[in-house]
Specification:
2 domains, 126 residues, two-stranded parallel sheet, Rossmann fold, mainly alpha
Length: 126
């Protein structure tokens, strides 16, 4: 919906369109009160970015299948040699969490790290 933020769109969907489908906010805004504002505008839940797959799927199951005893877990991925090398080479970076936020896509995570290093290349470590 052009010219509408998520809160306005949610209010419109609930109040004007009278649609009851669950609405789950996905936002990078983690300031105090944002999740409450999302709920007050008619959204059913709020998930902060970066998206944790387990939280996302559990939230979807909760809202779309509330009476179900279905469960979702993200299988642990087997770390490969590159992940081990990254962990050894970058001891101050939480490689495991970084990979988790990039869906365990090591190629994507390498690009993110390279862009980070390039952006901050002129900053002294001290």
């Amino acid at each position: 919906m052009p010219n509408m933020d998520g809160f306005t769109a949610s209010e419109y969907i609930r109040n004007s369109m009278k649609i009851k489908t669950p609405i789950i906010a996905l936002s990078a805004d983690v300031m105090d009160g944002v999740a409450e504002k999302a709920i007050q505008s008619g959204m059913d839940d709020y998930i902060a970015k970066p998206i944790d797959k387990t939280i996302l799927y559990k939230t979807i199951l909760h809202h779309f299948y509330p009476d179900s005893d279905l469960e979702f877990t993200v299988p642990e991925s087997t770390p490969d040699v590159r992940q081990y090398a990254m962990t050894e080479a970058l001891p101050s970076i939480d490689v495991k969490s970084g990979l988790a936020t990039s869906s365990n896509n090591i190629e994507l995570y390498e690009v993110i790290l390279q862009k980070f290093a390039y952006k901050w290349r002129n900053v002294s470590p001290n």
